[in-house]
Inverse folding.
C-alpha cells in the first residue's frame, strides 16, 4: 500500500518533467528545418552569383552565408560548452563549394550539440558575449538569425530572377 | 528502518512535487517565458520601426513583380501574428476588424497584433506553455512552440524588408544601433 502510494507520488512528481521533454525536442525539430532551408537556398544560387549584392553597402550572397555560419557556429560552441571561436572564421571564403561546406559543418556541429541536450540543460545558463543566457535562448537566437538572413537571401534570389526553393 | 527510509522519501517527493508546482505557477520571469516575451518585443520593435521608417508613398514598392510589397508584407505579418498567437491563447479566430490600408492604419493594426501576442504570452505559465496541443500542420506540439515559430517567421519577413529598405536607401532599424 505504502509502496503504491510512493510510486503514485513519484509519477505525479515526474510528470511536469516528462511534459518538458518537449523543449529540447522542439529545438532539434526547428534546427533540422533551418538546416534544410539554408542549405537549399545556398544551393539554389549559381556559383557565379555568390558575389551578388543588391546595394553597395551590404553583404553579398556568399558573405551572408559566411556570416550566418560563423556567428552561428560561435553560438553553438557556447551552447555545447566548447571555447567559442571567432565569428569571422569563414569570412574569407569566396568559393561556393567551400561556403556550402562551412555552412553544412556549422549545422552538423549544432545537430551534435542538440542531440545530447536535455530539457533541464536547455534552461541552464551559458556564457555568451560576456553575459549569461539560457542555452535554449542562444539556440533560438541562432535559428532566428539564420531565418532573418534567409529572408535577405530570398529577395537576393528574386532580384536575380530565381524562384526560391 | 525501511519504513523510516520510505517516510523520508515520501517527504522528499512531496517537496519536489510542491517545488515543481510552485515553479509552474510563478509564470512570467522563468527561463522559458522571460526570454520568449523579450524576443517578441524585440521583433515587434524592428517591424514597427520599419513600418514607420518607410515613407507612405513607398508602401507599394516591391523589388520584383511577383513578390509582396512593403504593404503586403505588413498586412501579412498582422495576419500571421493573430494566426500563430491564436494557438497560444486558444483564440483561433481573432483578426483585425477591417483590412488596414493607410500607413497609419497599418501601424495601428501591427501594434494591435503584437498586443494580442503579448496578451497570449502573458497568459502562459511554465506548465501550460509545455502543454502538448494540436499545432500548425496537423501536428501535436508544445504550446510555446507556436510563439517561437511566430517570432522566427517574423524574422524571415523582416529579412525581406531589410533588403527592400536598402533598395530604397533606408538604413534598417536593426542596423542603426551598430
Amino acid at each position: 500500500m505504502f509502496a503504491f502510494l510512493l510510486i503514485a507520488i513519484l509519477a505525479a512528481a515526474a510528470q511536469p518533467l516528462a511534459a518538458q521533454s518537449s523543449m529540447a525536442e522542439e529545438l532539434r525539430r526547428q534546427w533540422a528545418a533551418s538546416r534544410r532551408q539554408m542549405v537549399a537556398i545556398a544551393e539554389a544560387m549559381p556559383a557565379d552569383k555568390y558575389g551578388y549584392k543588391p546595394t553597395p553597402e551590404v553583404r553579398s550572397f556568399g558573405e551572408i552565408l559566411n556570416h550566418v555560419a560563423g556567428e552561428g557556429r560561435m553560438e553553438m560552441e557556447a551552447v555545447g560548452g566548447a571555447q567559442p571561436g571567432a565569428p569571422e572564421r569563414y569570412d574569407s571564403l569566396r568559393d561556393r563549394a567551400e561556403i556550402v561546406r562551412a555552412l553544412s559543418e556549422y549545422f552538423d556541429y549544432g545537430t551534435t550539440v542538440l542531440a545530447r541536450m536535455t530539457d533541464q540543460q536547455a534552461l541552464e545558463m551559458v556564457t555568451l558575449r560576456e553575459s549569461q543566457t539560457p542555452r535554449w535562448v542562444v539556440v533560438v537566437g541562432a535559428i532566428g538569425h539564420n531565418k532573418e538572413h534567409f529572408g535577405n537571401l530570398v529577395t537576393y534570389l528574386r532580384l536575380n530572377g530565381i524562384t526560391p526553393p | 528502518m525501511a519504513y523510516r527510509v520510505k517516510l523520508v522519501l515520501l517527504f522528499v517527493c512531496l517537496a519536489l512535487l510542491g517545488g515543481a508546482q510552485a515553479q509552474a505557477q510563478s509564470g512570467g520571469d522563468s527561463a522559458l517565458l522571460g526570454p520568449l516575451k523579450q524576443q517578441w518585443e524585440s521583433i515587434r520593435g524592428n517591424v514597427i520601426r520599419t513600418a514607420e521608417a518607410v515613407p507612405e508613398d513607398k508602401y507599394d514598392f516591391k523589388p520584383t513583380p511577383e513578390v509582396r510589397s512593403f504593404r503586403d508584407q505588413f498586412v501579412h505579418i498582422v495576419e500571421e501574428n493573430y494566426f500563430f498567437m491564436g494557438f497560444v491563447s486558444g483564440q483561433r479566430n481573432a483578426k483585425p476588424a477591417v483590412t488596414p490600408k493607410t500607413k497609419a492604419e497599418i501601424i495601428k493594426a501591427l501594434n494591435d497584433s503584437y498586443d494580442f501576442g503579448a496578451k497570449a504570452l502573458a497568459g502562459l505559465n511554465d506548465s501550460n506553455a509545455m502543454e502538448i496541443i494540436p499545432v500548425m500542420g496537423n501536428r501535436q506540439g508544445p504550446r510555446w512552440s507556436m510563439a517561437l515559430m511566430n517570432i522566427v517567421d517574423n524574422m524571415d519577413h523582416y529579412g525581406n524588408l531589410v533588403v527592400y529598405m536598402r533598395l530604397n536607401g533606408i538604413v534598417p532599424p536593426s542596423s542603426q544601433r551598430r
Remarks:
- Helices of chain A lie at 2-19, 22-44, 61-80, 96-115, 119-123, 135-159.
- The first strand of chain A starts at residue 125 and ends at 128.
- Chain A has six helices and two strands.
